[in-house]
Amino acid sequence: MATHRFHPLRYFNVIGTAEPCLRISDGDTIITDTVDASGLDAHEAAVAQRPNPMTGPFFVEGAEPGDTLAVRIDRLTPSRATGWTYSPLSHTVLDPAAIADQPSQQRAVWSIDREAGTVQLREPVKGLETFSPPLQPMIGCFGVAPAGGQALSTATSARNGGNMDYRLFAPGTTAWFPVSVPGALFYLGDGHACQGDGEIVGTGIETSFEMEVTLRVLKRTIGWPRGETADDIFTVGNARPLDQALQHATTEMLRWLGEDYGLDSRAASHLMGQVVRYDVGNVFNPAFTVACRIARQWLPKL
Amino acid sequence: MATHRFHPLRYFNVIGTAEPCLRISDGDTIITDTVDASGLDAHEAAVAQRPNPMTGPFFVEGAEPGDTLAVRIDRLTPSRATGWTYSPLSHTVLDPAAIADQPSQQRAVWSIDREAGTVQLREPVKGLETFSPPLQPMIGCFGVAPAGGQALSTATSARNGGNMDYRLFAPGTTAWFPVSVPGALFYLGDGHACQGDGEIVGTGIETSFEMEVTLRVLKRTIGWPRGETADDIFTVGNARPLDQALQHATTEMLRWLGEDYGLDSRAASHLMGQVVRYDVGNVFNPAFTVACRIARQWLPKL
Amino acid sequence: MATHRFHPLRYFNVIGTAEPCLRISDGDTIITDTVDASGLDAHEAAVAQRPNPMTGPFFVEGAEPGDTLAVRIDRLTPSRATGWTYSPLSHTVLDPAAIADQPSQQRAVWSIDREAGTVQLREPVKGLETFSPPLQPMIGCFGVAPAGGQALSTATSARNGGNMDYRLFAPGTTAWFPVSVPGALFYLGDGHACQGDGEIVGTGIETSFEMEVTLRVLKRTIGWPRGETADDIFTVGNARPLDQALQHATTEMLRWLGEDYGLDSRAASHLMGQVVRYDVGNVFNPAFTVACRIARQWLPKL
Amino acid sequence: MATHRFHPLRYFNVIGTAEPCLRISDGDTIITDTVDASGLDAHEAAVAQRPNPMTGPFFVEGAEPGDTLAVRIDRLTPSRATGWTYSPLSHTVLDPAAIADQPSQQRAVWSIDREAGTVQLREPVKGLETFSPPLQPMIGCFGVAPAGGQALSTATSARNGGNMDYRLFAPGTTAWFPVSVPGALFYLGDGHACQGDGEIVGTGIETSFEMEVTLRVLKRTIGWPRGETADDIFTVGNARPLDQALQHATTEMLRWLGEDYGLDSRAASHLMGQVVRYDVGNVFNPAFTVACRIARQWLPKL
């Protein structure tokens, strides 16, 4: 159960099979640096290219195709005092008739106050003078090498994870990814200081981070990313349209409730029908992300 | 500000222009009975036909096309001790490859315990012996007559409301509907004792209700249903696929933030981008329902 | 087998249950007038309102719910020498990023030359000085009253037909509609002098027509509109997104190949897999239209 | 203008950046072998793996990012006398309610008669005893290396081409692909002896081929694949749902009509609105394919 402090020297814009940056053991912890979505590091130096440059890949000893990599998000610490977003709203979330009325795309800078635990626009905007939502760090893009020799752009996501931009990928959550290659080859980056549902301006508050994660190999097989928080379990589907992402997530939850909680399809539907929650991870990237979430309080005790 | 106790004699399976069952004044309260989605009343007598028989229409004096009807949901009291659901999960939420594996559709009966404030399956199901989620009454289907002489099935929803199956249409919420005909012609019914996101078994816990609502005419124009709760404001889009429903809801929220809170498109996007929440009302009916929701705490103080 | 010359006095913007304008016998022919999509008649007088004012409804003796109404399109004769279209392309067919670059919507007038059998823009447009495609009349919107007391806007389409804007609804084609009310209640209008696939400018060349159709009751049940031409049989699905419209059309074709041609699902798939054609009726209206078409030459001889 | 006879020794299941199998000059012709979608060669020996093993990549001297690679399909000769398909219809083209009624997936073998120019099921199927559609060879999957170091599965398609399964990628057609890497890195394979629209059984008639193509570098930039036949020009969009694929294709055609035919957006819409044709390439793969096609007879003479 070693802890590795890794300083990346290069970054990746695809998630695929590449030379590992570090080999670690099952159960080890990594502390490392990530740059923002545009490649700016803690000093706002441009050290990598768009989109979403990844730190990695980390080779986890013992991880084999068919296994699951469990990634506990221990800590996400912004490594600088500012982040940026775009405005206005993305085309993907507007009625087509409203698109032409939108102003041009601009980049805005936000102050990140780690002491206060808040973020705030640096330049005042009329009506938002006091708007100061909480600092809620999350990982926008992370995952493992996909199957079949694919190398997938960090702009998008798939079964192997990737650019899901889901705000529950936050400290305290353990994310699960289906392993397709020996060593899993885990990548991470694209941290956000805050983000609403859907990443509807095309960004969260993009900044550089020091991230701490603990990686564990589970000898079980999953179809899509999953997650565990203190309060919930959730599954994630990545696809277009949202309907298909939701179908992937729901089908994976049905499978999970059967595997771990002994619920057959009918029983699972009784439970899900009354208490399921759907979250929209992103509705901006090439593949949209929907999470199917169930509070632990409703799960059968085993 | 009169209160009317109305006992329905007939029910409607379309929302359209029909002879009003009652004329009320702006600000009046209605206490009335609704039957369940299959037409069973408080005595489980079959008094109406599928789908979703509606009580109404109520003519509200002073409501004119271009106005908004605000419907405060004062109270939703189940009028019998049981409700029913379907199982298994709907085709709309499953990967197509998983559909063939599902068991046949069955109806299950739930006990509704008004004292305890819970619901529970009447016949025990393995793994759900202690599953007893809270009684959380909501209105599945309500709205006003649509424009242009249309009569829309209560199976579906549109700009005028209808079968949205969104769990925040609950006591304490005020729903807004765009008025298209004189008197608004308001209908309601299809109460659920409980329902998760998406109505993913094709039903909530369907039962009969005594419903109490207060109707008010707002001299303002909206494009899609809106809602106000103690904590949130939300807008609703109804369409397929989910993407389009989400676009309608988001565009309507952008409009609302401009009208009432003085935020231009860019400012609204800064706010929404960090704190917006999306809820899936239903992903089962012919038109799916997505709500765009913002906590009041983030809205500019006026 | 009478022929009725009917002169409409009023027009309808919904397809639903209304007082019949004429009662005819099974097998009778109707010759009648239709106005253009905006309500202009043969003299360009505004006699009706948008959208797509319908002539009808015609009550066909002997048609009962569960039957099929077969509408042979005998003749579509433009009743004036001009029609109109919109430009530019609809939002529904453009990448969202391209929408803002489009010019404002304008109405263009086309000359309809019945002698030459062509249409041509009346005002010259650079690059289209010689563009003169054939006059290919079609019915944009027609169908029968839907089930359950619905009244559906002529802007859209559903199982009962409506605004499908499919160019094979042309002279020589027999269209089939599923009957849901006694007498079928048939409506027609919205003729186009010409239209490409998808109605991608939001219109065909809209003009008034004298239309001649022959109505026959088939004692058989269908799920979605069907059509027969000299060369093909086709089925039509109406929904969003296009995927769902295509699913409806394909499923209906599978059913037809079983009913009339003795092909089980496997055999039908072998045939369809090699020779099916898909046409996009419209990708503009609230419900999109996709046709699934098979050339008669490939059908089993019975 | 050399002609190269290339015998592949290895095959690829992703389209990405890999060591070229051959370097050729701009204008050269390649004659090579392709295996079927499951990796069977001309002798039905299994020499490669699913999905859609590719021959290539071919490096074309002078091709640079931002250029276009024009691939003239000179000849597609089946290299064995049989091919195979699946039945029944794909889940993607059926109403969800119809999925459970379908028989299990089976593989069927077809005889390919090069003399007669026809294909026929080898085992008789009731109702299809005389079903013998024409041999119409096409390329299912071909394209060039994508941008940014991606390696995309040959199961899917994107801007760079890939598994589009469009029946007009046939002899006589010249396909255009946007070049993203030096040398273009062209791959091809997955030949079909015949296929209807949509590849709705999940396959065409899959067989091995000798393919002959001529590659030319165009110093111009395109956004999506394009094609030229004797009669038509077309553009191709690859995405889900079909709506988005259609948007990509239509937007690319609008661009082409401006670049090469001098039509502004308004003029192009007048032309497209009356004469455009949409074809469904596939509605089976992860990304669906729609082509936007215009007959040359309607194009402005330059």
TrEMBL record, chains A, B, C, D:
This is Acetamidase/formamidase family protein. It comes from the Bacteria. It holds the Pfam family FmdA_AmdA. InterPro entries: FmdA_AmdA (IPR004304).
